[in-house]
Design goal:
The chain contains two helices and eleven strands; from the N terminus they run βαββββαββββββ. With about 170 residues, it is mostly beta strands. The longest helix has 10 residues. Pfam families: Metallophos_2 (PF12850).
């Protein structure tokens, strides 16, 4: 199972579509963790599971969603409702409530991944306004056997080697 995870595109239309089109035929799901600032039904959002971010006004995206893709349960939210810039505890409660194996979030624009209590947390960073790095990032999560592998990419599709993560599935 492979999933593209992207967040905080903040109005980038062509850029978002370019990234989605680049990978859509190699992944099983495309997740956007909010702050697209695009209207529901916009062509750049075609085929993406998307949640509402704090900058998504007048749209009817859900605040969060839970999807099981080829046996892997993802919980996706923007993160602003769970105060992710300060702590991951409220997000962890919600992910565990939803029996998620992988929790995806954005809001902080900081590309990171970590595992806690059997749940893998992924923030893909931002393709528009990254923080703590120069690169504008997104990632692909791959679950194969007992391994969860997360590969981060720069905007142009180049792999970012120092943002590579591997976790053992619990």
């Amino acid at each position: 199972m492979k999933a593209l995870i992207i967040s905080d595109s903040h109005g980038f239309e062509k850029e978002l579509k370019l990234i989605a089109d680049r990978h859509r035929h190699e992944v099983d799901a495309l997740f956007h963790c909010g702050d697209s600032e695009l209207p529901n039904g916009h062509e750049a959002l075609e085929g993406l599971y998307i949640v509402k971010g704090n900058c998504d006004f007048n749209v009817d995206f859900p605040d969060d969603l839970t999807e099981t893709i080829r046996g892997v349960t993802f919980y996706v939210t923007h993160g602003h409702l769970y105060n992710v810039k300060m702590t991951h505890v409220p997000l962890s409660y919600r992910a565990e409530e939803n029996q998620a194996e992988i929790a995806c979030f954005g809001h902080s624009h900081v590309a990171t991944a970590f595992q806690e209590n059997g749940v893998v947390y992924i923030n893909p960073g931002s393709i528009r306004l990254p923080r703590n790095r120069v690169e504008r990032t997104y990632c692909i999560c791959e679950c194969e056997g007992e391994t969860i592998k997360i590969t981060y990419y720069g905007f142009n599709g180049e792999v970012i080697p120092d943002l590579a993560f591997r976790f053992t599935r619990k």
